[in-house]
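Q: Hi! First time doing this. I have a protein sequence and I read that you can turn it into a structure. Is that right? Here it is:
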Amino acid sequence: MWDMATALSLSHLGSLMRGVRSVDEVGADERAASLAKRSIKKSSKLWALDLAIRCMDLTTLEGSDTPGKVAALCAKGIRPKPGDASIPSVAAICIYPARIADAKAHLRGSSVRVASVATAFPSGQSFTSIKIAEAKEAVEAGADEVDMVIDRGAFLSGDHEKVYDEIVAVKEACGPADLKVILETGELGTYDSVRRASILAMAAGADFIKTSTGKVQPAATLPVSLVMMEAIRDFVRETGRPVGFKPAGGIRTSKQAIAYLVVLYETLGADWMTPERFRLGASTLLNDVLMQIEKERTGAYQSGDYFTID
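A: Yes, that's right. Below is the predicted 3D structure, encoded as structure tokens:
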């Protein structure tokens, strides 16, 4: 039985990685495409759109981010559609570490959490000591969640021990905060690499595994997400420890969001249909979801002019 205590004490990490089974790429592509075509009833669609909002990490990760921009994003996250209390708040606001204090101040008293990227985001190319320090300072500044990036150069060169050790160290530095580990799947090359990186991150203590930074293309895709969800499913069967999943990057429409929820339900089940185990990383998705909800309720789309800018 492979439990976390065993995983964390492995002196031969290579044997763990060699034991990860290969992915049937054609099968993954076909299953993801098939699930994406599923149609759902109107009542189920409204429920799914509501869930998409509740699971959303509303994100701004630009060099031009200002306190004012973060304040507006926080207001949007708390009340996505002013005047309509039936629309829930998002799960979290995802920002750079320098903007944590701004977000924390504007989210006080709400259910919306503060998520901060860290560990030399988006490249992951820095000294381990700096990555650990950044994660620790982010939590001390008020982050409820830390989104770290793995060192893809180390992973692709076969230095799995370095990647593993960094995740363990950052997880420890996060203390009470949840740790989401970003694989940057667009740079990993193959589904086999995605599966190995997923298992490695979970064995090292990740609370969530996340597809992408949103800065590299391709970002989140349904087949890659299916591979990661299946890795979570197998990991939970072996260890009994649930791990969350977050696709991020390129998810812009309600149709895409619902497709991810369908794949999630079919792969991991109802227990993962919650913000505690699923997040959608998005910067422009929210307004499309709001317009789709209005269309389902009234039969007519509203113009984007009726919604605040994300």
